[in-house]
Amino acid sequence: MLEFLGGIRHQPWKVVPTGQLWAVSLGCGALFLLLATDDDGFLFLIDHANLAFHEAGHLFYGILGPTLGLYGGTLGQLTFPFIAGLAFWARRETVGSAFAWVWFFQNFLNIAQYMADARAQRLPLVGGGDHDWANIFGRWGVLPLDTTIASAVQFLGWVGMIAASGWVAWRWAYQPKE
């Protein structure tokens, strides 16, 4: 595995054409505008996929025990974009990597919303089960800090998304010129 990762460093990144830079800029700009102005912060297509990965994460990580099963929802919704990000990174595809990392960090916004609801428990839950973050924060003894922690996670989500999309522009600006 380390040999594989070491070999990646020596491969050049694929060129980012100007058209792709514009597509990423417009696409991410539209996504960020939607995320910032949407009333409930739930974007139909992407967040239903994230929810499916969340629920699958409970099952997948739950095989390893009940504690990982509890954390598995959040881990599941982060695992899939993380793997996609690594796959594009290994292929040295800037745009694919950036979109995967934007997707990864966009999940932080949903996770933060779920965290902030830990005490209030007003969000509808799939199957009406237990509230993951109420249980997690209860175990950690930080339940009264749910909204504070959620704000920090939301901030990290925005920083990550902006950095991932900005990275495309940086790669474009500093790629070898012909």
Descriptive overview:
This protein has helices at 2-9, 18-37, 44-62, 66-90, 94-116, 132-140, 146-174. It is elongated and about 55 Å long. The chain contains 7 helices and no strands. It has one domain. The protein is an all-alpha fold and 178 residues long.
Quick summary:
By secondary structure, the chain is mainly α. It has helices at 2-9, 18-37, 44-62, 66-90, 94-116, 132-140, 146-174. The chain has one domain.
Question: Which features would summarize this protein structure in a list?
Answer:
178 residues, mainly alpha, single chain
What would the principal axes of the Cα set say about the shape?
elongated
Helix content: over 70%
Number of strands: 0
Given helix and strand content, the structural type is mainly alpha
Count helical runs. 7
The first-to-last residue Cα distance is 34 Å
Strand content: under 5%
Largest sheet, in brief, is:
none
Q: H/E series, N to C? A: HHHHHHH
Domain module count: 1
Low-confidence stretches: none
Mean pLDDT: 92
Fold topology:
Elements: H1 2-9, H2 18-37, H3 44-62, H4 66-90, H5 94-116, H6 132-140, H7 146-174
